[in-house]
Design goal:
Blueprint (H helix, E strand, L loop, with lengths): L1 E2 L4 E5 L4 E6 L5 E6 L9 E4 L5 E7 L7 E4 L9 H4 L12 E6 L2
Parallel strand pairs: 7-8
Antiparallel strand pairs: 1-2, 2-3, 3-4, 5-6, 6-8
Length: 102
């Protein structure tokens, strides 16, 4: 699990869901279907460009990763409001999912 300063808790499941919940209420805020099991804890970091990112490994670690930019017009209202559903990855094997955050 990863707890963020804005009160959002992120975690992945073996059946392939990356989920965000409100830390206070437990209400689900967002979910992403990775199409394969999440095999690492989510990791938050700041990139060289100064933006915050979220990364997580899914699958068995083989295959190419991809970057997904999650910014949108609602980014100023908090991370949970800026995230939206995305289509699951099509490639088999492992994935490094990286989400650009507001």
């Amino acid at each position: 699990m990863l707890a963020l300063p804005d009160g959002v808790v992120l975690y992945g499941t073996r059946d392939g869901w990356l989920k965000a919940r409100d830390a206070r209420t437990g209400r689900e805020l967002w979910r992403y279907d990775a199409g394969t099991g999440i095999v690492s804890r989510p990791l938050a970091f700041r990139g060289r460009d100064g933006r915050p990112y979220l990364a997580v490994l899914a699958g068995d670690g083989r295959g190419a990763g991809r970057e997904i930019d999650m910014r949108d017009a609602s980014a100023d209202s908090g991370m949970a409001h800026a995230l939206r559903d995305l289509p699951p990855p099509r490639e088999p094997g492992g994935l490094l999912l990286v989400f650009g955050l507001p």
